[in-house]
Specification:
single chain, alpha/beta, Beta Polymerase, domain 2, Rossmann fold, 2 domains, 6-stranded parallel sheet, 4-stranded antiparallel sheet
Length: about 425
């Protein structure tokens, strides 16, 4: 079996491409079911965030055409997305997953949100039965590696997030956030983080609108803010100097005509929109209005640049840890690959041993318990000596690229082929 990973992220694709591939959390179960039904895919997980969409699969011999799945699922011409895709297999796929989970591949290196996002994607994949075997082991190890990176390096020190970078950008626009009115559209984790940063930097009143009004109330209460029913969004949004929006809407919720209404009511006082949603909540046409400033997730990369140099050395240390962890994980997987052959060999020779004892038992006559123990010990000793060399060879080969060849030779020598085919059939049925 082979690990495969395909995706786009903030480095390879602009937001207008990423938003076309984004999968809302509510649609992930159905997408995962279709993904694991795709030819060649035995296990799968899908990670969809504002900065990346990645599909991770365990396939037989790397034979799953993941590009084909993307094209079919999103009903999009592959020519439009192929230039933006990256694809990894085996060790490279493992390394990429470890780096993503450890926040080394994030727009803001060291941000803490990605680990939670990967865990949520993993939980959904497990819930629908898409992740249950080697992929489950890989994700579990990825979380342990992320913890080790945070413990042994300072890559997460002075932690920043997309939300905190957005607040920094707001300060650059306004000079000071003192007394500025803030409108949060969406009541998710990202907007809550934004609220904390805004209040810490002197922001005044906070309004919260969310499609689920109860969630808006709960978030507003945390910050002594005011919850607004989503149906009143356009009637009340002009109260804000800063709008931070992060919803799961498949279409823009703020369009040019809304911006024109807001400016008219505000007597042309400027408004600042930070759109951290993918797909985007704010139509780019809004940015053409004098007095409205719109920054989307990709625009935040300029603010992120100042953090990169400080974390470069710690990121290098983290990459060294990940390289070691990748080798350890691969070695463990290769060892697991030879274990079924070792077990089959032991069972095969034990059957021969017991069958031969039963065959000659009648000719030996009555045996005392001591004699029976002696025969048992003698035959076990012979079998163990026969097994020693092939088992040692298998264990040694597990650490090398020749493992598959050695496994095949041992199985042929001891006629274990029929049993292996049966095992693979059973495994395929479960996957």
């Amino acid at each position: 079996m082979t690990f495969q990973l395909i995706g786009v992220n903030h480095k390879t694709a602009p937001v207008e491409v990423r938003e076309r591939l984004a999968i809302p959390e509510s649609h992930l179960p159905e997408a995962l079911k279709r993904f694991t039904q795709h030819p060649g895919v035995h296990e799968g997980m899908i990670l969809s965030t504002c900065n990346r969409v990645e599909l991770l699969a365990r396939s037989k011999n790397g034979g799953a055409n993941l590009r084909e799945f993307l094209g079919n699922y999103f009903q999009i011409d592959r020519g439009q997305i192929d230039p933006h895709l990256y694809e990894y297999r085996e060790q490279d796929a493992v390394r990429h997953l470890f780096r993503v989970t450890s926040s080394l591949d994030s727009m803001v290196v060291g941000e803490a949100q990605i680990l939670g996002q990967v865990k949520e994607a993993y939980a959904i994949a497990r819930a629908v039965g898409a992740c249950h075997s080697q992929l489950d082991q890989l994700l579990t190890r990825a979380f342990a590696v992320a913890k080790r990176v945070r413990t042994e390096t300072a890559v997460g020190s002075s932690a920043v997030s997309v939300a905190s970078v957005a607040v920094e950008l707001a300060k650059k626009i306004f000079g000071s956030l003192q007394g500025k009115h803030v409108y949060l559209v969406g009541a998710g984790k990202m907007t809550e983080l934004a609220a904390r940063h805004l209040l810490a930097h002197g922001a005044g009143s906070i309004f919260v609108a969310n499609r689920t009004y109860d969630r808006a109330i709960r978030l507003a209460q945390k910050f002594q803010g005011q919850a607004i029913e989503f149906s009143r969004l356009y009637d009340t949004c002009d109260r804000a100097d800063i709008v931070i929006t992060s919803t799961g809407s498949p279409h823009a919720i703020f369009r040019r005509e809304h911006g024109e209404q807001f400016l008219s009511r505000r007597k042309n006082r400027p408004m600042f929109f930070i759109d951290i949603a993918v797909p985007r909540d704010v139509d780019p046409e809004m940015n053409k209005l004098d007095g409205i400033f719109v920054y989307d997730i990709d625009d935040l990369q300029q603010a992120v640049a100042s953090h990169v140099a400080d974390r470069k050395k710690e990121a290098q240390r983290a990459d060294e840890i990940i390289n070691v962890e990748v080798e350890k994980f691969q070695a463990r997987l290769q060892t697991l690959d030879v274990v079924p052959t070792i077990v089959s060999l032991q069972e095969h020779l034990e059957l021969i041993r017991t069958a031969e004892i039963d065959r000659v038992r009648g000719r030996l006559g009555p045996l005392s318990p001591e004699q029976q123990l002696a025969i048992d010990a003698l035959t076990r000793g012979i079998v163990n000596k026969i097994m020693h060399t092939p088992i040692s060879t298998l264990k040694t080969a597990a650490r090398d690229a020749e493992a598959t060849t050695v496994v095949e030779i041992v199985r042929r020598l001891f006629n274990l082929q029929e049993k292996r085919a049966s095992e693979e059939k059973d495994s395929g049925g479960r996957a």
